[in-house]
Design a protein that fits this description.
Length: 388
């Protein structure tokens, strides 16, 4: 069955692939914007485990950006995520169980993804997680606009911007991007000026393999054949990052000045309720990673307000409604929400979890080390959350 009322990003991509003529109009919070014609086929690749309540928002949002196809790998879900993904097939979603046999779930999935037709036929491939939303700041706020602004390179790496919990305790079944608007200073994360990235990759990139944060090419590739690769401002990425010859610069580079055309909103914490579920679930991408107090504090810096992505909310809500109209999707989404709330209730009923939740909620919205530095500098009090 075809999607009854395709979201604008998807519908435009389909029409423009046929004739590459004309434009379309998309409603945003600040009025109407024109969407340029595009022939691009763009595939988003991701891994999930028990992310059912958040799938519709992520798919709908990326369709607004111009993503035409999705490849999801699921890891032993017990909240109905896998069934929901299957029901989203008419929206361009391909769902596969993660074939990983080892501990590095995401890298093994990406190795498999490179062999899948949905990826190999794509003009561009976007590897990201479902708590990451590419916030395009140029043109009509779509991926084709970003690609054009950056000069149509072979890869575009966009810097993370971690959005704080903002004191939100309770999980709500509504768009995440509308609930959290404070982040760290975009040029500085904790004590680091270099911030990790995610990368949009063009078909003709001299690919050796996809990584979670960036693609890799062979070390033996002559310099003359190195890919044209930019940051989110269309500037060439630093040489150390391009060559991937320094482990500390393999996945990140200085973020200052790198976000003129796009930033990557990363809602790693969401509500405290959902964070408790995340800590119980574990990392979907690799075994053994612990979501501890440091993980929370590093991503809960509320120094900066950024509401720019809210321009997408009106169209996003329409897109979610259109996905819910697909057979079975609304029911399966609602079941995943019920499962999420049941897990929250089960976890909060455990004294040690309730104690940990209270502890996290009481922590200042400051990155590790900043409170101690303030004390050394003689500040008498801690700034209120979000007031810095």
């Amino acid at each position: 069955m075809a999607l009854p009322a395709l979201t604008r990003g998807r519908r435009n991509a389909m029409v423009f692939r046929q004739n590459n003529r004309g434009t379309a109009r998309m409603a945003t919070g600040s009025g109407m914007v024109t969407i340029k014609a595009s022939r691009l086929r763009i595939c988003a690749v991701t891994c999930v485990k028990n992310e059912g309540p958040f799938v519709l928002e992520w798919v709908a949002y990326n369709r607004l950006l111009g993503v035409t196809d999705f490849l999801f790998y699921s890891n032993d879900c017990d909240d109905g995520t896998d069934a929901l993904l299957d029901a989203l097939a008419p929206a361009g979603v391909v769902h596969l169980p993660n074939p990983a046999q080892g501990r590095n779930y995401q890298m093994e999935a990406l190795k498999d993804a490179a062999r899948q037709e949905i990826v190999s036929r794509a003009d561009w491939v976007w590897v990201a997680d479902v708590d990451e939303f590419l916030n395009v700041q140029t043109g009509d706020h779509t991926l084709p606009a970003l690609i054009e602004a950056c000069g149509d390179p072979q890869a575009i790496s966009v810097s993370f911007q971690f959005f704080a919990n903002g004191g939100v305790t309770t999980f709500e079944d509504r768009p995440v991007i509308g609930q959290f608007t404070r982040s760290h200073n975009p040029d500085l994360w904790c004590d680091q000026s270099a911030i990790e990235v995610k990368t949009l990759v063009r078909r003709d990139f001299p690919l050796q393999y996809y990584g979670a944060h960036r693609p890799f090419f062979r070390k033996s590739l002559p310099a003359a054949k190195h890919p044209r690769w930019t940051d989110g401002s269309g500037r060439p990425v630093p040489g150390a990052f391009l060559a991937a010859d320094r482990p500390r610069r393999m996945r990140k580079f200085p973020a200052a000045g790198a976000r003129n055309f796009a930033t990557l909103n990363h809602y790693a914490l969401r509500s405290l309720d959902s964070y408790l579920v995340k800590t119980e679930r574990g990392d979907v991408n690799r075994e053994g990673r612990i979501f501890d107090e440091s993980y929370w504090q590093e991503r809960n810096d509320a120094a900066w307000e950024d509401r720019s992505i809210l321009r997408m909310l009106p169209s996003l809500e329409e897109g979610i409604a259109e996905l819910r109209a697909l057979p079975g999707v609304a029911r399966l989404h609602d079941l995943s929400v019920q499962a999420h709330r049941a897990k929250i209730g089960m976890l909060r009923a455990q004294p040690q979890v309730a104690e940990r939740a209270a502890h996290l909620a009481a922590l200042p919205a400051l990155p590790p080390g900043e409170l101690e530095l303030m004390a050394q500098l003689g500040f008498a009090s801690t700034p209120a959350e979000g007031a810095r």
